[in-house]
Sequence to fold (176 residues):
Amino acid sequence: MAKRTTTSKSGKTAPQVSIIMGSDSDLPVMQDAARVMEEFGIAYEITIVSAHRTPQRMMRFAEQAHVRGIRVIIAGAGGAAHLPGMVASITPLPVIGVPVKSSNSIDGWDSLLSIVQMPNGVPVATVALNAAKNAGLLAVQILSTADADLRDAMIAYKQEMRKQVEAKAKKLSSGK
Fold:
């Protein structure tokens, strides 16, 4: 994939996507979104923003993300999983929620339902449990609506995925 980054006035690469999580225990899941950003050459930032332990930090983050040039937010959280919805209630940006199956959860249902059951007026796009890769791909697709090169890269990604599946099907059918 070709590298796509934006440059700030200071000459530094400005992130377009912010990957946030409620705890460092969510990092193994959320790194999948970061890998997608790297694969597509999209500048991103990744940090911890806890809705419960650092509410003021969360408020500042959500209020300022668009001012800093962020275009999409991927927010992962486990348990009560309020982070994606709380951020979505403040920011004008699209928020993609990643429910994270935490060790003390009820098989991840608490996280999933906390993110997906948002009231009207506060949308959060929600992916499957621990599906940060899909969140990353959705962020790429959102960004590609205004970037033809990125859209072409997504088309190529999907074509390659199809080729891989067809090759596996052919291998299985031939008994090899």
About this structure: The chain is about 45% helix and 15% strand.
